[in-house]
Amino acid sequence: MKIIVIGTGYVGLVSSIGLAELGHTVFGVDKDHHKINTLLKGQEPFYEPDLGRLLKKNLKSHRLFFTASLAEVINKAEMIFICVGTPPKKDGSADLTYVKQVAQDINKYAKTGKVVITKSTVPVGTGQMIEDILNQKNGRRFFAVSCPEFLREGKAIYDFFHPDRIVVGAVKESTGYKVMNLFAKIKTHKIVTARETAELIKYASNAFLATKISFINEIANLCERVGADVEEVAKGMGYDKRIGPAFLKAGIGYGGSCFPKDVRALRQLAGGSGYNFRLLKSVIEVNSRQRKLFIEKIKRVMGSLNQKTITVLGLAFKDNTDDIRESAAIDIVKILQKAGAKVKVYDPEAMVNAKCLLHKKTVFCESPYAALEGSQAMIIATEWPIFADLSWNRVRVLMKKPVIFDGKNIVDDKKVRKLGFKYYPVGR
Ligand code: UGA
After folding, report:
1. How far apart are the first and last CA of the chain?
2. Do 162 and 14 lie in a common domain?
């Protein structure tokens, strides 16, 4: 099948490469000429494991093409994926400006009969809106379909080929199955349903995962007060098949470009339909309070932070990515600096992005060890496995004071305590 994918951001690029690898011919389109040139050279515009290898492979086998001109390629394909951004507006609702623009462009250039599939995370009713734009000209018939993506950053390529489910929402079932057929080589649960249902499955999934995280963070806060261990509590809960062990990792809260945005957007969506989704308000509040509670703990232990040297390990919103959007780590660095601390930082992938956002006085270091030299406290703010595996004897010598605040509960507490570190995790 010949396919157009509009947007070469996270969702668009992974989808383009994934669909090409499945054997389809894919034309990736983006208005950003610089990005297109980078991709044509086989260079990935952001860090994602295995993305570069598959990009080069599929360019070479002529199954993957990139262009900045939609008009040039649009009528070469029968199916068009929309993968453009839906950033949050001030009130939390999703901004559909780019989606509308793309629908108008398709309307302008495409011949009738095409299937237009939305992969961007969009509010319920967007499929209808797209179809209305597309079918404005008399006698033309386009079919808007929803196919939400469930990829995790850092594991996006793996997730593309091993999804827990594929969801396709269409008005006509036959159109839904036609789109589902694109993924024939992938064996998983496949759901063909109504368009509105598919759109809501995406938001409900992200909001539920965020709820699990906020729930376990509340339990963690309670654990600290009653002397229980949240890691053990989560383990005990997770063995119950009805609960499951995933997304019960307590810490400084969720970040990234999806959960914060999507939970707010779902709340807005519910509000817009006249329903007050009370639970989501708490999920959001708990998440933003979690990083503040962590800073309060640091202040309780260290007293004034003024002029103290503190190391923050991790800047990305989670491991295996260079993405710093809504990262708790970035917030923490800023709060520490506001309190007068001298902050040294290290992240394996996110330093370049963080440099654009953090104050000039932030000291960016080449390794965790350089960042820890002379430091009065270490904060682990991202769950990169290397931070759990540091050479603790070496760290003990390098640091001025052996204090660890583990915002992600990844360090072996017995081991570091034995070496004389003061260790402060979350909820243990
Ligand atoms: C999330 C979803 O997991 C994907 O299924 C979805 O497709 C994606 O959003 C999206 O909508 O595009 P992602 O944002 O890449 O994926 O990251 P996650 O791995 O879900 O982690 C999100 C945040 O939650 C991170 O800050 C992570 O540190 C935090 N987290 C995760 C916890 O604090 N505890 C946990 O137990 C799990």
Report:
1. 53
2. yes
Q: What is the dihedral of CA 427, 216, 283, 285, to 10 degrees?
A: 0
Clarify whether residues 175 and 289 are in a common domain: no
Residue 410 Cα to ligand 1 midpoint, Å, equals: 17
Instruction: Give the domain-ending residue among 193, 219, 237.
Output: 193
Structure tokens that stand for 299 in this block: 């202040």
> Taking a C-beta distance cutoff of 8 angstroms, is the pair 215, 233 a contact?
no
CA-closest candidate to residue 164, choices 205, 119, 212, 116? 205
What is the model's pTM? 0.94
| 207 inside domain | no
CATH number (domain holding residue 370): 3.40.50.720
- Residue-range definition of the domain harbouring residue 394: 285-424
95 domain residue, yes or no = yes
Distance between CA 369 and CA 391 in Å, rounded?
9
Q: What is the pLDDT of residues 333-360, one digit of tens each?
A: 999 999 999 999 999 999 999 999 999 9
Give the pLDDT confidence of 168-225 residue by residue, as tens digits. 999 999 999 999 999 999 999 999 999 999 999 999 999 999 999 999 999 999 999 9
Cβ(150) – ligand 1 distance below 6 Å: yes
| 229 in Cβ contact with 428 (< 8 Å) | yes
317 lines ligand 1 (CB under 6 A): yes
Domain-ending residue, one of 193, 214, 244: 193
Q: How many separate domains does the chain show?
A: 2
Task: Classify residue 206: in a domain, yes or no.
Answer: no
Ligand 1 centroid to residue 376 C-alpha, Å? 31
The SS3 call for residue 362 is coil
Ligand 1 close to Cβ of residue 149 (< 6 A)? yes
> What stretches of 52-195 adopt beta strand conformation (E)?
64-67, 79-82, 115-118, 143-146, 165-169, 189-193
Going from the Cα of 263 to the center of ligand 1, the distance in angstroms, rounded, reads 12
Ligand 1, atom 22, residue with closest C-alpha:
254
Specify if 265 maps to a domain.
no
| 255 Cβ below 6 A of ligand 1 | yes
User: Is 356 noted as a catalytic residue in this protein?
Assistant: no
Options 83, 147, 223, 258, the catalytic residue: 258
CA distances to 194, 339, 374, 391 from 401, rounded to whole Å, are: 59, 19, 8, 16
